[in-house]
Design brief:
The protein is of the alpha/beta class and about 325 residues long. It has 2 domains: about 180 residues, Rossmann fold, CATH 3.40.50.2000; about 130 residues, Rossmann fold. Helices cover about 35% and strands about 15% of the residues. It has 10 helices and 12 strands. The protein has a 7-stranded parallel sheet, sandwiched between helices. Strands 9-8-10-11-12 form a 5-stranded parallel sheet, with helices on both faces. Helix 3 packs across helix 4. The longest helix is centred in the C-terminal third of the chain and has 18 residues. The chain is globular and about 65 Å long.
Length: about 325
């Protein structure tokens, strides 16, 4: 049995876990504070208490040694106790952590090997360094040729770059652009964006030569399966979250990528990698109205074929192969 800890923020961690676990041979138990969707590829699941409900957490970083471990927090105590009980009952061969330094360190202290999913950005703080140092292996869900951060090179001997993991990998294209008026899809994941439906409507009013559609941004509809809309867009406007980028890459669509503020410069690092590699047009914030035609022309000229370099094809399978191999190795020594 493998355990897989899934962070509750947004939906990207859950999507990535589902993609990887669908390709695993070893049964998986999901551990998360987020709800696990029916039909997810897990043999079992463990619901964990939230540890961020208090209004005034006390010393949550343990004097900058960790990221989130507030003292006297009932939720933290309850969730860690539940994880320890599950480990004691199940004897997992390893735990995949996406993502939490505290969970990785805690489970490793229980004697369980840990696989950590790396995150982009400047992960040089003591807590991240501890998590990566404790990890038996690190999986980076992007191509090394496109983004090879210096801080991760210390752990190169135990890091596998698998490419961008998309839930749409292997799915047939759902049609394509079919109008003389270019269709612009403004797409946001559950992690949040600074853009709003009002921003998109202002663009649609000013630039009537394009058809504008918004999904996931505040005030706009949410769809669980945006694949048809992705494939039908002439240009996708998106944040720089790992799942958003991987989904655009899988659809091979021209894109304008807008990095959203995230801890440790996560999205800025991804956007910089995309810009350097010539995969997408990137901007630091929602553009002024008069800039859109030039940006859209640049994205259309760039096209979407270079997205093959993000290596989404087979990425989840490559991650699963690494995890299965480590699980079998751990089982052989127990």
């Amino acid at each position: 049995m493998i355990g897989y800890y899934i962070h509750h923020h947004g939906s990207g961690h859950r999507m990535r876990a589902s993609s990887i676990c669908a390709a695993l041979d070893t049964p998986v138990t999901a551990l998360s504070s987020a709800p696990i969707a029916p039909g997810a590829p897990f043999a079992d699941s463990v619901s964990l208490a939230r540890d961020d409900r208090g209004s005034s957490p006390e010393n949550p970083t343990a004097d900058d040694a960790l990221h989130w471990a507030p003292v006297h927090d009932v939720g933290l105590r309850t969730r860690m106790s539940r994880i320890a009980s599950w480990v004691d009952e199940t004897h997992p061969s390893l735990l995949v952590v996406d993502v939490s330094v505290e969970v990785a360190a805690f489970v490793r202290l229980l004697g369980v090997p840990v696989v950590v999913i790396a995150m982009p950005g400047e992960r040089t703080d003591p807590a991240h360094h501890l998590g990566y140092r404790l990890a038996d292996h690190i999986v980076a869900a992007w191509p090394q040729a496109m983004y090879d951060p210096e801080w991760l090179r210390e752990f190169a001997h135990k890091t596998t770059f698998v490419g961008g993991i998309s839930r749409f990998d292997g799915r047939a294209p759902a049609g394509g652009p079919d109008s003389a008026r270019p269709r612009i899809l403004v797409l946001s994941g559950a992690g949040g964006t600074a853009a709003t439906l009002a921003d998109v409507r202002r663009c649609a009013h000013r630039h009537r030569g394009y058809r504008w559609q918004a999904l996931g941004v505040p005030g706009a509809p949410w769809v669980n399966d945006p694949w048809p809309e992705l494939c039908g867009a002439d240009v996708v406007v998106s944040d720089a979250g790992q799942n958003s980028v991987a989904e655009i890459a899988a659809a091979r669509r021209p894109a304008i990528v807008i990095a959203q503020p995230r801890p440790f410069g996560e999205q800025e690092a991804t956007a910089d990698a995309l810009a350097r590699g010539g995969l997408a047009v990137t901007v630091p914030h929602w553009p002024e109205l008069n800039r859109w035609p030039a940006l859209l022309d640049r994205a259309l000229a760039l096209g979407g074929e270079r997205w093959v370099r993000w290596q989404t094809a087979g990425a989840a399978t490559r991650a699963a192969a690494v995890i299965d191999s480590l699980a079998k190795r751990a089982e052989s020594v127990t």
